[in-house]
Amino acid sequence: MGSKRQFRIWRGDETGGDLKDYTVEVNEGEVVLDVIHRLQATEAPDLACRWNCKAGKCGSCSMEINGKPRLGCMTRMSTFEESETVTVTPLRTFPVIRDLVTDVSFNYEKARETPAFAPPADVAPGDYRMEQVDVERSQEFRKCIECFLCQNVCHVIRDHDENKPAFSGPRYFIRAAELDMHPLDARTDRREYAQSDMGLGFCNITKCCTEVCPEHIKITDNGIIPMKERVVDRRYDPLVWLGNKIFRRGQVPQTSATSGHSSGAVTSGGTHGGAHAHGGGPHVGGVHSHAGGSHDSAAERQAQQGVNWHREVPHPTAPAVDASGKLPLTELTFNKAAAPSPFGDDVTFPLPPEHLNFAHPQQDEPKH
Amino acid sequence: MTTTSARTPRPQPRGGRARAAIAAKTLRTDRWWFAPLITVVGLSAWVIYATVRVFMHKWYWVEQYHYLTPFYSPCVTDRCVEGSSHFGQFLPGWWIIPDAALTLPFLLLFRLTCYYYRKAYYRSFWLSPPACAVPDGHQSYSGETRFPLLGQNLHRYFFYAAAIISLINTWDAILAFHSPEGFGFGLGNIILLVNVVMLWAYTISCHSCRHIIGGRLKHFSKHPMRYKAWTGVSWLNVRHMQLAWITLGTLALTDFYVMAVAAGWINDLRFIN
Ligand code: SF4
Ligand code: SF4
Ligand code: FES
Ligand code: FES
């Protein structure tokens, strides 16, 4: 059944490299990643490639196949002619480590810059209720497997490396959209932030991100364009601006949960009494420490009272090692049924909430 | 101006390290140049046709059946034929002034700032990028962050204008059920109607419309009617590209038909009167 096929694979590292020719056997039903694995097993044992699930779900095997950003494990060999030479190269937009493996830390840095979900001020975790229609739009973006193919194909950084500091990229635009559309997210400056700090304006909606997304997320139509329209609402719409001036309010309908402080963030505070609205709200003795994003420092402080910021963090036990100082390799010689926990065997999950002292990086900064 | 509460410090992405040294600008083997090419051909052809027609200043009105081409509606210069001007004739009839000077600029700006056409011409005319994973044809790039492209954000206002103009076009199509005997109905009416329906579909499928109708809401559950409307607009919105091209076709066809009948090249096929 198998047939010999021609491959060209980029081999090299940051000091340089080249396309190398290979002839590999290809069997029915195989994908490009299978062929890479066969090469590793035969001709090229040192060919570097990142992969994990082989099911299009982990986002590790991103590469460029015949010049198109694709998942290696989702590109069937049957989509190529028998006589066709298949060219496989690493992602172009990120620095190469070796062969098909690139350093995608750009994306993780951008992920960290993107403000996280901001819990609503007066709803305790566990009491969150949402209607399906309200979260549906956000859920589309949760399908993202972080393969970064969209980040890789986007010409804003692919062809203009100098834009990298100012541009977060489509994957983070849909993250911003996901949270801006989220029915419980308390932040109201996401669209502003997307425009001024994430570089939404760099995108010229040429839709390449949508074209390559293996999860078929409508990145442009459902994420970026709605975000651009939301920016227009706030920045470029004189009618909205006038309305805000006259009625002194934000134009976006808010939940009762968020309206208290959200308008405070839109207009410049002090124009209404919203900031106090939930100062005496139903906070139950510090059970929840909604340590994120809220702009209301009074409520913030109150919420933090139940948290002991100076508690001793118990040091987990070190994993059990044998006489040579190494982990016991076999279960037979090991005194437990399975491998030791990297967190220490005395730590159980979920961690009790009173032992959490996560602090949102922005919670102590002054309002405005 | 709104202040964002706090800015996350921006560490420079780890830069300076080399990308893979791949000599070929693109390794794509498919005909990626075909889509931009056909876009250039299609859009250029349409723009040339429309420009010629707009400055022709004749054959836009069929007196007998009250057919008015969308390119001249409403006719507002003092050379306009009586009947084609719903809103008076307040502009001088200089050659350089289009007879529909009130509407055409807005329609042009509407399509120019349309999210779909933006994609089409950024890719095909401006090569930024010509196709996915094919390098941008420019040294530097700032996207829509500054003037003049920042102006693309005004699309919403042109959408409002276009909605009003669609009303005028609808009115034209209704008035065209006319013959010297009173009521009349011919092939021209069908063409005008199809054109108007398609124009509405295109206008309503606009991304700005989708946003205004319901996309801007945070809680669909509190606005069931708007959610329904949004669902409908979203259905059309998926077809926005097709509608963009279809309306270019129907506009040119309608105009050509009216021109042909007005010039006497063909006779309108009449069903009633
Ligand atoms: S649509 Fe925007 S974000 Fe997506 S690839 Fe194009 S420029 Fe980049
Ligand atoms: S949005 Fe799509 S292409 Fe981008 S990282 Fe997520 S799954 Fe990959
Ligand atoms: S190996 Fe997980 S997505 Fe391909
Ligand atoms: S008309 Fe195309 S997006 Fe508005």
TrEMBL record, chain A:
Domain of life: Bacteria
GO cellular component, as recorded: plasma membrane
InterPro entries: 2Fe-2S_ferredoxin-like_sf, 2Fe-2S_ferredoxin-type, 2Fe2S_fd_BS, 4Fe4S_Fe-S-bd, Beta-grasp_dom_sf, Helical_ferredxn, SDH/FRD_Iron-Sulfur, Succ_DH/fum_Rdtase_Fe-S
Domain 2Fe-2S ferredoxin-type: 5-92
Family of the protein in this entry: Belongs to the succinate dehydrogenase/fumarate reductase iron-sulfur protein family.
Cofactor: [2Fe-2S] cluster; [4Fe-4S] cluster; [3Fe-4S] cluster
NCBIfam families found in the cross-reference section: dhsB, PRK12386.1
Entries under PANTHER family matching the protein: SUCCINATE DEHYDROGENASE [UBIQUINONE] IRON-SULFUR SUBUNIT, MITOCHONDRIAL, SUCCINATE DEHYDROGENASE IRON-SULFUR PROTEIN
Biased composition range(s): Low complexity: 256-269, 285-296
GO molecular function, one term: 2 iron, 2 sulfur cluster binding
Protein name stated in the entry: Succinate dehydrogenase / fumarate reductase iron-sulfur subunit
Span list, region Disordered: 252-305, 340-368
Source organism of this protein record: Micromonospora marina
Biological process terms in GO annotation: respiratory electron transport chain; tricarboxylic acid cycle
Automatic annotation (TrEMBL), chain B:
Keyword set, alphabetical order: Membrane, Transmembrane, Transmembrane helix
Residues passing through the membrane, by range: 32-52, 94-117, 157-177, 183-202, 243-266
Protein name: Uncharacterized protein
